Amino acid sequence: MDAAGLQRARLTGMSVRGEDLVSAAVAPQQITFDPVREARLRAEQVIDRVNRRFGPGAVGPEAVLGKAS
Asked: What is the pLDDT of residues 10-19, one digit of tens each?
């Protein structure tokens, strides 16, 4: 927004256009506007792999697992 010179103006809309798109399988990196969401998705992939290898519930959210003794 700084590049648009809108320090205090209210932005009511934004458009993004993509051209010459390719499959995600061949793209070097998926573009994101939300790095927190991307980190969570990467963590979910790891959790899924661990649970497949060691069984359901081997790893999960901290709130579900409880405190370590």
From this structure: 777 878 888 9
Tokens 């700084």 sit on residue: 2
Tell whether the model's pLDDT for residue 66 goes beyond 80.
Answer: no
d(CA 16, CA 11): 14
Determine the Cα–Cα distance for residues 57 and 47; give it in Å rounded to an integer: 9
**Contact yes or no for 30/24 (Cβ under 8 A):** yes
Check pLDDT > 70 for residue 41. yes
Amino acid at 2: D
* CA-closest candidate to residue 46, choices 57, 59, 33, 63: 59
> CB–CB of 42/49 below 8 Å?
no
